[in-house]
């Protein structure tokens, strides 16, 4: 049966007016009186349902009248314009074929459910208004990111998910092993014999594709990765997941300024793309989730992001007179409360914080001339806090080697990374955008669990 997508009916209503169409979809709602009824039919192609009007002349009127929410149907009928009504048109039904029945205990009845409850039915929640909007925006934002980098000639690199090195040096990795945990092979001194493992060494799920992306940047100049990353961080917050997606561009012959300019352009491009291509979904978020969202996003596209050094940021926070739970001192890692205060109260827009103390940042960041700070950048945005972390990379062989020694790294694991500095190393930079945090920012949704189809967080991997 040739069907028309509901999206086409809304986009090209005039050309379908008065014509017979067949639509396939699920019953969102059904109201029946004695000899006629209305069905809101939803087909997933568009944010809105179509109104289907049916009457007792249908042979299966009685069966239709008994349908439960979420039954799936084919509806054939004439599209009639309904000027002045809530919806611009409706379908006057000639025939309905029942494809699949639904039972009366369907959990998503026509009422507002809390996001917490919907998390317990992750297999059904994509059918709710909120999640249909979230996941369409997620899909569009992913596309916009690829489009942005593609238009600028970046090469998309698929970095490995199983790695032998810790890209962040933070030790928050999930081990990948085929060893029998109840019967581990041991070396003579009693340690686990990783040579016996599948890869002949210890391996983990990647925390970042950056180190591998750097190898490609030093071959292609401008590259990016976009893939899943894994962190065994035991932080049970609304912004941390154990499995999340990251976008990591890496650019050669580029410094921190170039890096910030790229990040700002990318953010504006993605926001504009989503505003333009998902107007119904964005209006929904503005109405039901955060009623300053559209104004905020529009402002961001048209204004410049703020820039501040870490040292200045610490001064601003201290001078603010605000009592923070975690006191501010030069040298601390900025906490969410500090990040949000900076971006929401002081700058009131996205702001790059740069040049952090070397002690609190990753080993690969370029040491500044003051010998105290590194050329790092975090982008903070209102409502979310840190959304991007990046830096100019240490391209000087000896400086990097010294840093790794100081941190007690096993240099053998990074021999290939060091060689990049030996064979035509150049200044280069990059950053990681947390994709889920970007979706939180775009939708106003406050919990990372509600922007991932099947979230993995501490103690939770049900679906
Ligand atoms: O600041 P991070 O740790 O930076 C890196 O991994 C670098 N290697 C990136 C690079 O320079 N190529 O993480 C980058 C971003 C954060 O700003 C945050 O948005 C997100 O990744 N992120 C998380 N998102 C969800 N859950 C977590 N547990 C996250 N950890 C980081």
From TrEMBL:
Stored CDD domains: AsxRS_core, EcAsnRS_like_N
Cellular localisation: Cytoplasm
Record keyword Iron present: no
Protein name: Asparagine--tRNA ligase
GO MF annotations, alphabetized: asparagine-tRNA ligase activity
Highest taxon listed in the record's lineage: Bacteria
Phosphoprotein in keyword set: no
Occurrences of domain Aminoacyl-transfer RNA synthetases class-II family profile (ranges): 135-453
Assembly: Homodimer.
Primary location group: cytoplasm
């Amino acid at each position: 049966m040739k069907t028309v997508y509901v999206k086409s009916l809304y986009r090209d209503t005039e050309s379908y007016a008065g014509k017979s169409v067949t639509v396939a979809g699920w019953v969102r709602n059904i109201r029946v009186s004695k000899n006629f009824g209305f069905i809101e039919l939803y087909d997933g192609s568009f944010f809105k349902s179509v109104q289907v009007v049916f009457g007792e002349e249908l042979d299966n009127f009685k069966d239709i009248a008994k349908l439960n929410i979420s039954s799936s149907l084919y509806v054939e009928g004439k599209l009639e314009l309904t000027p002045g009504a809530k919806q611009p048109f409706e379908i006057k039904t000639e025939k309905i074929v029942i494809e699949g029945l639904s039972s009366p205990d369907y959990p998503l009845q026509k009422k507002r459910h809390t996001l917490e409850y919907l998390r317990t039915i992750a297999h059904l929640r994509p059918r709710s208004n909120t999640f249909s909007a979230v996941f369409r925006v997620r899909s569009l934002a992913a596309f916009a990111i690829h489009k942005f980098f593609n238009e600028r000639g970046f090469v998309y690199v698929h970095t490995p998910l199983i790695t032998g090195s810790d890209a962040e040096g933070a030790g928050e990795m999930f081990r990948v092993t085929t060893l029998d945990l109840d019967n581990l092979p041991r070396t003579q001194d009693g340690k686990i014999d990783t040579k016996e493992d599948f890869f002949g060494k210890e391996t983990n799920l990647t925390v970042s594709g950056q180190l591998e992306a750097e190898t490609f940047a030093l071959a292609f100049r401008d590259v990016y990765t976009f893939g899943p990353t894994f962190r065994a961080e035991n932080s049970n917050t609304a912004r941390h997941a154990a499995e999340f997606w990251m976008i990591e561009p890496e650019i050669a012959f580029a410094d921190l300024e170039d890096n910030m300019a790229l990040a700002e352009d990318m953010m504006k491009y993605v926001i504009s793309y989503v505003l333009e291509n998902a107007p119904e979904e964005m209006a929904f978020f503005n109405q039901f989730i955060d009623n300053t969202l559209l104004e905020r996003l529009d402002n961001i596209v048209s204004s410049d992001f703020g820039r501040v050094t870490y040292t200045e940021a610490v001064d601003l926070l201290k001078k603010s007179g605000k009592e923070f739970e975690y006191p501010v001192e030069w040298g601390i890692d900025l906490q969410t409360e500090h990040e949000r205060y900076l971006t929401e109260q002081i700058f009131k827009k996205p702001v790059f914080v740069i040049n952090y103390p070397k002690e609190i940042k990753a080993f690969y960041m370029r040491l500044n001339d003051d010998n105290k700070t590194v050329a790092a950048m975090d982008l903070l945005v209102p409502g979310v806090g840190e959304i991007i972390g990046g830096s100019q990379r240490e391209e000087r062989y000896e400086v990097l080697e010294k840093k790794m020694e100081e941190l007690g790294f096993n240099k053998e694991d990074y021999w290939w990374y060091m060689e990049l500095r030996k064979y035509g190393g150049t200044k280069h930079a990059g950053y990681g955008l947390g994709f889920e945090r970007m979706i939180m920012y775009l939708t106003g949704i406050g919990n990372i669990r509600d922007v991932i189809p099947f979230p993995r967080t501490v103690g939770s991997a049900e679906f």
